[in-house]
Amino acid sequence: MITIKNDEISIGNFRVRELSEKFGTPLYVYSEEKIKNNFIKTLKTARKYYKNFNLFYAIKACNNPHIARILINEGAGIDAASINEIKLAKLLELKGNKIMFSGNFLSDEDLKEGYESGAIINLDDISLLPRLLKYGTPNIISFRVNPGYGESNVGEWVTNAGPKAKFGLKPNHVLDAYRNAQNAGIKRFGVHMMPGSCLLDPDYFHKITNMLIKIIIPIFKELNIDIEFINLGGGLGIPYEKKDTPLDLDKTMKGISEIIISKCTQNKLKLPALYMEPARYFVGDAGILLGKVHTIKRSYSTIIGTDISMNTFARPAMYDAYHHIYIDGKESHPRQKFGICGQVCENTDYWCRNRKLPKTVGEGDLIVVSDTGAYGYGMSYEYNGRLKAAEVLITKDEAKLIRRRETFNDMLKNVELSNEMIKNLTK
Ligand SMILES: Cc1ncc(COP(=O)(O)O)c(C=O)c1O
Question: To test the ligand 1 pocket, which listed residue (62, 79, 144, 372) has its Cβ within 8 A of the most ligand atoms?
Answer without folding.
Answer: 79
